[in-house]
């Protein structure tokens, strides 16, 4: 009897495992077309995302990273154009527990109206996006998290923190990191040449501006600046109550080799 009972338990366990597996697979398949449609709609709305590409536009963005947050059941996916691609852009896709989808662009730094860099002028011959990183993120939060949700504030913070630290691999900046902020200057082929001395002055101005509001509250141990080394940007999060304001600082400069 004991052997039959043990065998029955094992059979039930196997059945339960495969049932959960097939349900999960079915959910993933059902959400994938929604993600693809969301990306395609975003590309049509912002043709700058694929301005340099001649092939089928919707297929040039590939999934490179996916992070699932367990407490609030939020998933964030990063889609990117190929490595080495000129003026490379990215797309962020957010999925809530109800499988609602929100996609937003992550333009490269030549689109300065999108990033609202301080101490920078718009580049000539670069079409405006007519939107901003701040507006896109706030729209996504409002679309995926109901205003009536009592935990909206916590969910907003979790979504932004996961996006910056887990998906974009940003490092939170503290006073001890001032040297890296002041001396990290990345050359970029996607923007016009710049004078390196002027770029260093911009780094100093960036640092002086961001450190004024490093702590959201006096005596707080929380820091609100995140260094995105891959994309050579620093994001500073400012909580405005129901909305967030994101100040973005550019940490690169235009540089091209001269072939003699």
Written description of the protein model:
It is built from 6 helices and 10 strands. The protein has 260 residues and is an alpha+beta fold. Mean pLDDT is 84; it is low at 16-27. This is Lipoprotein.
Task: Describe the main β-sheet briefly.
Answer: 4 strands, antiparallel
Q: Strand order of the main beta sheet, please?
A: 1-2-3-4
Count helical runs.
Answer: 6
Over all CA atoms, what is the radius of gyration? 22 Å
Organism: Flavobacterium potami
Protein name: Lipoprotein
Break the fold down into its secondary structure elements and pairings.
Layout: H1 2-45, E1 62-69, E2 74-80, E3 90-95, E4 101-106, H2 112-115, H3 133-144, H4 152-167, E5 171-172, H5 178-183, E6 186-188, H6 196-211, E7 225-228, E8 233-239, E9 244-250, E10 252-254
Parallel strand pairs: 6-10
Antiparallel strand pairs: 1-2, 2-3, 3-4, 5-7, 7-8, 8-9
What distinguishing features does this structure have?
260 residues, alpha+beta, 4-stranded antiparallel β-sheet, 6 helices, Lipoprotein
């Amino acid at each position: 009897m004991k052997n039959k009972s043990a065998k029955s338990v094992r059979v039930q366990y196997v059945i339960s495992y495969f049932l959960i597996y097939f349900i999960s697979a079915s959910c993933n398949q059902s959400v994938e077309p929604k993600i693809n449609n969301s990306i395609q709609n975003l590309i049509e709305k912002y043709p700058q995302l694929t301005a340099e590409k001649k092939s089928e536009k919707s297929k040039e963005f590939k999934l490179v990273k996916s992070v699932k947050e367990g407490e609030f059941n939020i998933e964030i996916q990063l889609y990117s154009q190929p490595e080495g691609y000129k003026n490379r852009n990215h797309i962020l896709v957010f999925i809530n527990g109800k499988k609602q989808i929100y996609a937003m662009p992550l333009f490269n730094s030549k689109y300065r109206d999108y990033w609202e860099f301080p101490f920078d002028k718009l580049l000539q011959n670069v079409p405006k996006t007519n939107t901003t990183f701040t507006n896109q993120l706030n729209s996504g939060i409002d679309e995926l998290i109901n205003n009536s949700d009592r935990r909206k504030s916590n969910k907003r913070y979790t979504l932004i923190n996961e996006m910056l630290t887990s998906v974009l691999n940003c490092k939170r900046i503290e006073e001890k990191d001032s040297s890296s902020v002041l001396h990290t200057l990345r050359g970029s082929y996607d923007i016009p040449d710049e004078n390196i001395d002027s770029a260093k002055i911009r780094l100093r101005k960036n640092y002086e501006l961001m450190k004024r509001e490093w702590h959201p509250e006096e005596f707080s141990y929380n820091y609100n600046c995140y260094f995105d080394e891959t994309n050579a940007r620093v994001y500073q999060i400012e909580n405005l109550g129901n909305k967030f304001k994101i100040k973005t600082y550019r940490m690169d400069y235009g540089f091209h080799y001269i072939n003699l």
